[in-house]
Amino acid sequence: MAAIGASSSDGLIVCFGEMLIDFVPTVSGVSLAEAPGFLKAPGGAPANVAIAVARLGGKAAFVGKLGDDEFGQMLAGILKENGVNGDGILFDKGARTALAFVTLRDDGEREFMFYRNPSADMLLTAEELNLDLIRSAKVFHYGSISLIVEPCRSAHMKAMEVAKDAGALLSYDPNLRLPLWPSPAEAREQIMSIWEKAEVIKVSDVELEFLTGSDKIDDESALSLWHDNLKLLLVTLGEKGCRYYTKGFRGSVDGFNVNAVDTTGAGDSFVGALLCKLVDDPSVLEEEGKLVKVLKFANACGAITTTKKGAIPALPTESDVLSLIEG
Ligand code: ADP
To answer: Mean pLDDT throughout 128-136?
Structure first.
C-alpha cells in the first residue's frame, strides 16, 4: 500500500542520455588556456533531471553509459548517493567518461572543449539497454545529445519506442549544444526528427529562436512548434519565468527574483520539478489552475538552482522550494 502523505507517488521517471564531468576554471573570466586550474562539476542534463526528481522526493532512474574509469565510477556514485536508480547504467571498458572544459570569458563568450573521441556515452547500443527498467517508466525523459552519433542514436530511438509502447509519457528537452553538432542545420534537422513523438516538450527562449529561425519569442513562434500529439509545450525565459501551451489553454508564469550566481542546471531543475508533479497528478495537463501552481513550483526550483555554483549541489528539496514560494 502506498504511504499516505508521501511527497511523491511511485511513478518512476526514467531519464535517458549523457552524464559527464564539466571542468570549470577555479577563477572566473578567463579563457580555457589562461585558466590556472579546473574544478570537477558533474553534469549532463538528463542526469541532472534525474537527481532533481530524487531530491524533490520523486522516484528517478538514469539510463546511459559511463567509462569504466575513476570518473565513471564517481558519477555512478553521485547518482546512487542522491537516490537515483542506477539499474540502467552501463560501463564501457574501452572508452572514457565524457569531459567538457567550459569557461565564461571576460567578453561574455562561453568557450567549450569536449573530450568525446568517442566517449562512453556515445557508444551505448540498443542491445545493451535495460528494457525492463525502461518499461516500468511512467515518464521517459530525454534530450538531443544522444541523437548526434551512432550507436547511441539507435539506442535512443529504441528506448523511446519501448517506453512509449509500455505506456510512458514521453518528455523532451532538446538542450541544444551547437558545438557538438557537425553544423547548425544538422542540429535542427535531428532535433526535429523526433519532435512529434514527445507529449511534453520544454525549450528555452534561445532554443525557440534557433528551432523556428525567428528572432521573436512570442505565442506565434511557440505555436509554430505545436504538433497533434503534444500535451504541453513550455518555453522557459530565464529570470522572467515561463510560458505554457496546451490544447485547451495558454499563458505565462512569472519567475522569482533571486541573486543568480550560476544558471547551470536551472532548466533541468525546472523539468525535474515539472515531471515530479506531473507523475503525481497527470490532471495538471488538463486543469489550468493546477498547471499554473506546478509551474510556479518549477520556476522556484529553477531560481534556487541559480543561487549556487554548479547544477547538482544547487538542486533544491521540496522544503527549500516551499520557503521561497511562501517567502
Ligand atoms: P535553460 O537552463 O534550459 O536555459 P532557463 O535559463 O530559461 O532554461 O531556466 C529555466 C527556469 O529556471 C526559468 O524558467 C526560471 O523559472 C528559472 N530561472 C533561470 N534563470 C533564472 C534567474 N536568473 N532568476 C530566477 N529564475 C531563473
So the answer is: 98
C-alpha 138 to ligand 1 mean position (Å): 26
266 CB less than 6 Å from ligand 1? Answer: yes
Q: Are 134 and 164 in contact (CB under 8 A)?
A: no
Q: What is the pLDDT of residue 44?
A: 97
Question: What pLDDT is stored for residue 198 in this prediction?
Answer: 98
Q: Looking at the predicted structure, is the pLDDT value of residue 319 above 50?
A: yes
| Predicted local distance difference test score (pLDDT) of residue 105 | 80
Spatial separation of the C-alpha atoms in residues 244 and 284, rounded to whole Å: 12
pLDDT, average across residues 135-164? 98
What mean pLDDT is predicted for residues 172-180? 96
Closest ligand 1 atom, residue 263 Cα? 20
Cα-to-centroid distance, 92 and ligand 1 (Å): 34
Shortest CA distance to 286 belongs to which of 226, 246, 250? 246
Sheet holding 59-67, edge to edge: 85-92, 59-67, 12-16, 139-142, 169-172, 200-204, 232-236, 242-245, 250-253
CA-to-CA dists, residue 319 to 115, 118, 304, 327, angstroms: 38, 41, 12, 12
